[in-house]
Design goal:
189 residues, mainly alpha, 8 helices
């Protein structure tokens, strides 16, 4: 009986490394893009665009370097480009600094999944603390994609009042999340 020779795995080529990295990072890229572009259809289009850009620019990737950081950088610029192309005022997107910070958090969270879960838990708790009306308003605008005009009419307020309300609510949520994460770090230290 002839025993097949065992061959070590051949070194992965650039294409294989990029494809493997893309398949591994795809779900996280999807979450990151959806958090920046809350319309599901648009975020799926941007994800496809990001995947295509990653594949087309695979020759620029340095084998053995941090694929996730490289892929999230491409995603960040693709998100910013999408927002420029679709600047209709219908949906308020995160600013460039927030998009960059979120990309950094996604890379870090992948290396330490507990931090991402802690952030997600803190965010959910803080939104719940807002009360039913504010929580619903945030969901309608950021998740369901209601325009400022439609949401202001639905809530019985002017657009400028709604913008101010959302701005103040974002600050309140950001501060609440920061405090909860600080408390989490204090209790685990």
């Amino acid at each position: 009986m002839h025993k097949p020779e065992e061959h070590p795995d051949p070194p992965r080529g650039l294409e294989e490394e990029v494809l493997a990295g893309l398949l591994e990072a795809r779900a996280d890229l999807n979450h990151y893009i959806y958090s920046s572009i809350p319309n599901r259809s648009d975020s799926e289009d941007v994800l496809q665009e990001v995947c295509l850009k990653i594949w087309k620019s695979k020759d620029q990737y340095r084998t053995g370097s941090n694929f996730r950081a490289w892929a999230f950088t491409i995603a960040r610029y693709t998100i910013l480009d999408f927002r420029k192309r679709h600047a209709t005022g219908r949906v308020i997107y995160l600013d460039a600094e927030a998009v960059r910070a979120l990309a950094d958090e996604m890379v870090i969270a992948r290396q330490d999944p507990g931090s991402w879960h802690a952030y997600s838990d803190a965010l959910a708790a803080c939104i719940t603390q807002l009360g039913e009306r504010l929580s619903r308003t945030l969901k309608l605008h950021y998740k369901d994609g209601f325009s400022m005009a439609d949401l202001a009419e639905r809530e019985g307020m002017s657009e400028s009042s709604l913008k101010q309300l959302l701005y103040r609510t974002r600050i309140k949520v950001r501060e609440c999340v920061r405090l909860r994460l600080d408390q989490t770090l204090d209790t685990t230290s």
